[in-house]
Design a protein that fits this description.
By secondary structure, this protein is an alpha/beta fold. It is built from eight helices and seven strands, in the order αβαβαβααβαβαββα. Helices cover 48% and strands 12% of the residues. The strands form two sheets. The chain has a five-stranded parallel sheet, with helices on both faces. A two-stranded antiparallel sheet has the order 6-7. Helix 1 packs across helix 7 and helix 3 packs across helix 7.
């Protein structure tokens, strides 16, 4: 079940931790997690820019909904609109050239011999953060926000807290800048992520995330479930759906 007090405490800690940082770059895919991270960044920082990657995904639905989600955030939350800055999209189709992942090739989802699902794209988050660091450097932004999580996830090694800390150190050394990688969802499960959205923007933000964002690995966008669009059976849909049910159950219990 979602722990409301934990989510609220995490939110307060992140806001307090903004400190002297004024600008943030949010890795924004158009999915539930990155949209929640973007909303939190807009509540915390004076200037927020977004970054998406076209890496040869087998479907482009997330990339297609990104602009609409940004527009809806600005429209429905006018207090955030002045803070929402430029959107950037970088091409990284070298990941498709490397291949071997069901996110870049039309193959069935399965577990690999190494114990990881074949949805794992080796090096993806490391490359994302390296390019985000370079862009933040050029844009004068000091915080990089990413929605990686070590609680409800598929075991991807490049989503772990240790990986994020090591990457932050590498960026600071390599760029000679004091950058911070912020991972607001690292220790939250999906139910707590729904709660965080509610803490940030109430039912209006929850509904925006439910109906406008996209997480499904299959790219299914023709069925709206109670938790959002998706095929309902891929790992991403199962996580999102179970998180929604647990969060709603916790709401009913209070």
């Amino acid at each position: 079940m979602a722990n409301t007090s934990t989510s609220s405490a995490n939110l307060a800690a992140h806001v307090a931790g903004a400190g002297h940082h004024k600008g943030a770059l949010v890795l924004f895919s158009g999915g539930q997690d990155s949209t929640t991270c973007l909303a939190q960044a807009l509540a915390m920082f004076e200037r927020v820019e977004t970054l998406g990657f076209d890496y040869g995904q087998r479907h482009s639905v997330e990339m297609q909904v990104r602009a609409g989600v940004r527009e809806q955030l600005a429209e429905r939350f006018p207090q955030w609109a002045p803070r929402l800055g430029e959107d950037h999209v970088l091409s990284l189709d070298v990941l498709k050239q490397i291949g071997g992942s069901s996110l870049t090739e039309d193959v069935a989802f399965a577990m690999q011999a190494d114990g990881l699902p074949n949805t794992f794209v080796p090096g993806r988050n490391l490359l994302f953060l390296t390019l985000a660091g370079a862009l933040a450097y050029r844009r004068g932004l000091t915080v990089i926000v990413t929605g990686v999580c070590e609680t409800d996830y598929s075991g991807y090694p490049d989503c772990r807290d240790d990986t994020m800390k090591a990457q932050q150190l590498a960026l600071n050394l390599g760029l000679e800048r004091r950058l911070r990688i912020d991972t607001p969802l690292m220790w939250l499960d999906k139910a707590q992520t729904w709660q965080l959205a509610h803490d940030l923007g109430g039912s209006e933000l929850v509904e925006l995330i439910r109906t406008e964002t996209h997480t499904c690995y299959q790219g299914t966008r023709d069925v709206l479930h109670e938790w959002g669009y998706g095929c309902g059976s891929c790992p991403a849909c199962e996580l999102r759906a179970s998180g929604w049910r647990n969060w709603r159950a916790s709401q009913s219990a209070t």
